[in-house]
Specification:
Blueprint (H helix, E strand, L loop, with lengths): L1 H9 L1 H18 L1 H4 L31 H37 L1 H16 L2 H12 L3 H27 L3 H8 L4 H37 L10 H8 L8 H28 L1 H6 L1
């Protein structure tokens, strides 16, 4: 495993993704310090100002500094992505592990529920849920988590079906281990590799979903996110393109970084795939 991690850091593409994500996380943590202006400060006299020395990436239609708003907004976007992916992963692990370990009627019921969620277009259902329950950060996180857990559940189930027949599981069972210990102490630790890779990719997917919802006007109006910035800049994109370009570029970098890291982690966990390339 140590050699595989060495290969991860030798892969400059994966390292690039890690560096980008770390920079975005640092920006999210110290955004208010980096912001040269108040992100909500309105100034009609400087509205739609092009990028320059005073305003590095310009101002929007209301005279707000785009850079100050973006370094503040990335915090909300990353928060939505990380929390939604975490909740989705936890729910998926619980459902998939129970279905894969016990099998039988429980497996059929849980997989039927999983398929019900998968057959409905994810983004369409997210729009419906947020429209019904309100456009808040919490509701957006819950909606995204509800719609993405089946991905983790099916992956976890397949891993459990493969691992529960291994000899070390039989040995633990014969030694008197309870079902809880077999699931969480013996099988799950060995199934976490591909689950972590998939969870990493879910962070970027959740951020894209939040941006899409916000672009349709379903973002939290009380919180600045990159998606909300895109939505607000839409009517003025023809003469103030920079107001949409910079937050859009930050979303692109965040999604790209999680995908690059996921690809690198996949090489660590499945080194044979890397050898076959």
């Amino acid at each position: 495993m140590g050699e595989n991690w060495h290969n991860f850091f030798k892969n400059w593409v994966s390292v690039l993704g890690l560096v980008i994500l770390l920079l975005l996380l640092i920006t999210a943590l110290i955004g208010p310090v980096l912001a040269p202006f108040d992100p909500d400060d309105l100034e009609i006299g400087r509205r739609a100002t092009a990028p320059g020395a005073s305003y590095w990436v310009g101002t929007d239609e209301l005279g707000r500094d785009v850079f100050s708003r973006a370094v503040t907004a990335i915090r909300v976007s990353l928060l939505v992505g990380i929390i939604a992916a975490t909740v989705s992963t936890i729910v998926g692990i619980l459902v998939g592990s129970l279905a894969g370990f016990f099998g039988g009627w429980l497996d059929h019921v849980l997989m039927w529920i999983t398929e019900v969620f998968q057959v409905v277009p994810m983004f369409f259902l997210a729009v419906v849920l947020v429209a019904l329950f309100g456009a808040s950060v919490l509701n957006i996180i819950v909606a995204i988590a509800l719609l993405t857990w089946p991905i983790i559940a099916r992956l976890t189930r397949s891993e459990f079906l493969s691992l529960k027949t291994r000899q070390y599981v039989d040995a633990a069972y014969l030694g008197g281990a309870s079902n809880t210990r077999l699931i969480f102490g013996e099988i799950l630790p060995n199934a976490l590799g591909p689950i972590i890779v998939s969870a990493t990719l879910l962070v970027g997917r959740a951020m894209l979903t939040e941006a899409g919802l916000s672009f349709l006007g379903l973002g939290d109006p009380s919180r600045i996110s990159l998606g909300v910035m895109l939505y607000q800049s839409r009517p003025f994109v023809q003469f103030a393109w920079w107001a949409a370009f910079f937050p859009g570029m930050m979303i692109f970098l965040a999604v790209l970084s999680t995908n690059l890291i996921g690809d690198g982690l996949n090489d660590v966990i499945n080194p044979h795939l890397n050898e076959e390339r």
